[in-house]
Description:
The complex is a heterodimer. Chain A is built from two helices and three strands, in the order E-H-E-H-E. Chain A is of the alpha+beta class. Chain A has a single domain, classed as Phosphoribosylformylglycinamidine synthase subunit PurS (Mth169, Chain: A, 2-Layer Sandwich), CATH 3.30.1280. Chain A has a three-stranded antiparallel β-sheet, covered by helices on one side. Chain B has helices at about 15-25, 70-80, 90-95, 150-160, 210-225; strands at about 5-10, 30-35, 45-50, 85, 100-105, 110-120, 135-145, 145-150, 165-170, 180-185, 190-195. In chain B, strand 3 (about 45-50), helix 2 (about 70-80) and strand 4 (about 85) form a beta-alpha-beta unit.
Amino acid sequence: MAKIVVDVMLKPEIRDPQGEAIAGACHRLGFAEVxxxxxxxxxxxxVADADVAxxxxxxxxxxxxxxxxxxNPVIEEFTIHGA
Amino acid sequence: xxxxxxxxxxxxxLDDVDASRAVARAGATPVPLWHGDRGLRGVDAVVLPGGFSxxxxxxxxxxxxxxxxxxxxxxxxxxxxxxLGICNGFQILCEAHLLPGALTRNAGRRFVNREVRxxxxxxxxxxxxxxxxxxxxTVVLKSGEGRYxxxxxxxxxxxxxxxxxxxxxxxxxxxxxxxxAGVTNPAGTVVGLMPHPEHAIDALxxxxxxxxxxxASILSALADA
Lengths: 83, 225
């Protein structure tokens, strides 16, 4: 069993109100050194070894999955780890 | 023969009943469509209603886009079937790439639930032909992720080609780029709008009857076709 991790973040130019709210909470808690927070998503995808021909094929499939479903390329970027 | 307008119900749809009522009030026959069924039952147009389809898991509209009914709706819309996406329906149309851009979390971090004035910018689509361009109407906006975003080039293209359907006219309630409240595809058949015309068809239950024009427009468009 292979475990693939996909990190999804809003593109830098897209404003992230959730991150702004978290940054505000950091300051209220006394973490004055925090300048900004941006919030993303982490997906852990388990893939059966028997279903994957090789590492290259796995990387291609995971890229397809990320671009089609896990991330919306209009507003988000994704990074794949472990494929 | 009466005009048949399909209204899709997804798990978590909220406004399918009001959308059906608006369709009936305009004089068409509402036809319920179920997210899990294939086929469009021969309807002449489709409304994707507001709500929180599939709990808005992943992203608003991201799971609904892959519902079985969408496998028939997306090619039909590409071939010219008129589709109106309201609120969550607009989000679904963007996720399905039938409309450009995306809807993201409101800039003010709050769910906005109030009447807004919007200005109809394009009175030539299948869903807005009953309005004069520049006409302002009062409708309810109720969304937490209604901030329309797209890259600058896309926004410029939308403006240049008249594909901005409507803009917020009483202040920008959610931080939408260029005050955009709704957009249309190039053909004027697939339309997305964040506020809710289907809640504004009856003075007893809404802010007035300004929204009825969307549903009257599709009847006229189909009658002329």
